[in-house]
Automatic annotation (TrEMBL):
Family: Belongs to the MsrA Met sulfoxide reductase family.
Any one Pfam family match given in the protein's UniProt record, by short name: PMSR
Gene that encodes the chain: MXR1
Protein name, entry field: peptide-methionine (S)-S-oxide reductase
Alphabetical list of InterPro entries matching this protein: Met_Sox_Rdtase_MsrA_dom, Met_Sox_Rdtase_MsrA_sf
Amino acid sequence: MFLEILVDIVAEYRSAIFYNSPEQRDIAQRVTEEVQKKHFDAKGEKIVTDIVEAGPWWDAEDYHQEYLTKNPDGYQCPTHRLHW
């Protein structure tokens, strides 16, 4: 359990939405707020997905690609999938 909590707060492992325009940023913020209110507020949980401007991009090493497909028992933050 401690490892799961630690991974959820380490920035390198958190989910992110990358935007390329103010319109995309606004949509991401609006949808995140709607989902937060509809599905998480009542549970006392908080969406921690970062919404950040897209910058230079490079693909991760091959062993990171499709990680959960290749490692079905690998750790994933429980809020990364919709459970309602």
